[in-house]
Amino acid sequence: MAISLHNSTNIPRVGFASPFLGSNSASKVSISVSLNSFSNLSFKSVETSRQQLYRISAMSKAESSSSNQVKVDISLSPRVNSVKPSKTVAITDHATALAQAGVPVIRLAAGEPDFDTPAIIAEAGINAIREGYTRYSPNAGTLELRTAICHKLKEENGISYTPDQIVVSNGAKQSILQAVLAVCSPGDEVIIPAPYWVSYPEMARLADATPVILPTLISDNFLLDPELLESNITEKSRLLILCSPSNPTGSVYPKKLLEKIAEIVAKNPRLLVLSDEIYEHIIYAPATHTSFASLPGMWERTLTVNGFSKAFAMTGWRLGYIAGPKNFIAACNKIQSQSTSGASSIAQKAGVAALVLGYAGGEVVSSMVKAFRERRDFLVKSFGELEGVKISEPQGAFYLFIDFSSYYGLEVEGFGKIENSESLCRYLLDEGQVALVPGDAFGDDSCIRISYAASLTTLQASFERIKKALISIRPAVPV
Ligand SMILES: Cc1ncc(COP(=O)(O)O)c(C=O)c1O
């Protein structure tokens, strides 16, 4: 959709492609903005001012009905304007569109397992429909599922909860957003180690809180330096978000490091921790998972998030949950009661079936983890032999976050300059037809994320394509 901003009297008409809206010319809309205060501003500053204004009076009309103008105020809330759209979703959609147009793109951008939901879980969902479990379920989730979650958390994570300390949602994403909305007040700071999962900073913004990004180093396996954390805690710090195993780096926080972080957190009564453990089961020995809430003194201030999407290959079922002290969980429940209500009754039956598969998902999950590990080993070895790349071997999840920054600054004939992670991804899509996600989406522009939720054969083919595309331009400064 192309959009033009213009003032009918004295502001020149300016066209731009909206990153929010794609570029479908069939649905062209033009917006008339009556903003005389913009008249002396450049387009860039107009855009900036646009973000800052509380409301903008904007009128739209469909171009196709030029004679019969229907004027509609299409302005958006400043909250929405402050949020960036998800780059992973944008790239996945773009690659899908290319594939649908017949371009043989290999898609390694999405964050979902390539496996089907295990049959035994899927059957439980089918049976739920057959048996009439098709009505609204309790807002916080069925007692059956919350009881199964309590059992899992006790047995696998060493943390005790009662069902009223659990809220089941439509995916862990909803659980996280609700938690951030429940505990953050305007102006609060949310501490997020980078590289981070794309949604954390945006969720903080949605809560009118300020994301405070703490960089980590590839040489430290992208793990947060406790001293850096300590020096960034202020009286405004309300929430620290930890993700282990991590998306996008695959790093796993060792227990000793978590203990150090816990000691720092314990000194700050206002500071809570959201521990995103959604990749918990996708972990490669000898790495082990530690739940932050299991550490001394941390239960009272930790919100543990987990879900079914990754380990159980259930992304489409939309099922996740949060566990924590009752007052915080009751607040999450209240938000959910006024937005989506309970998760799908069918998915919840499938969730129960997933949780009774055995410790850490039993054989069903361990066979998928075995395949992920094989792929990780292949990619780490292959990319490790490429000139000009730095890798930290992932200990969990199904992503590789590779530093390709030695390729930045190169001028490529017929393409232009590779300036950053985004242009390198564009180059690799154009030249190698492999879709990857630029690291700047995760707060680290030196890297690119490769999802290895694809068959080994597909990964071998993608590696060859990437290698060919990179070899033809060679790194400017060998690392
Ligand atoms: C780190 C992390 N947390 C949470 C989620 C949300 O998962 P879902 O909403 O599918 O349960 C994702 C999905 O990509 C993720 O990578």
UniProtKB/TrEMBL annotation:
Pfam families per UniProt: Aminotran_1_2 (PF00155)
Biochemical pathway: Amino-acid biosynthesis; L-phenylalanine biosynthesis; L-arogenate from prephenate (L-Asp route): step 1/1; Amino-acid biosynthesis; L-phenylalanine biosynthesis; L-arogenate from prephenate (L-Glu route): step 1/1
The UniProt record lists the keyword Transferase: yes
UniProt organism field: Gossypium mustelinum (Cotton)
Name assigned to this protein: Bifunctional aspartate aminotransferase and glutamate/aspartate-prephenate aminotransferase
Annotated family: Belongs to the class-I pyridoxal-phosphate-dependent aminotransferase family.
Keywords from the named record: Aminotransferase, Pyridoxal phosphate, Transferase
Aminotransferase class I/classII large domain ranges (all copies): 104-458
A GO biological-process term: aromatic amino acid family biosynthetic process, prephenate pathway
Co-factor requirement: pyridoxal 5'-phosphate
GO MF: aspartate-prephenate aminotransferase activity; glutamate-prephenate aminotransferase activity; L-aspartate:2-oxoglutarate aminotransferase activity; pyridoxal phosphate binding
Database matches in InterPro entries: Aminotransferase_I/II_large, AspAT/PAT-like, NHTrfase_class1_PyrdxlP-BS, PyrdxlP-dep_Trfase, PyrdxlP-dep_Trfase_major, PyrdxlP-dep_Trfase_small
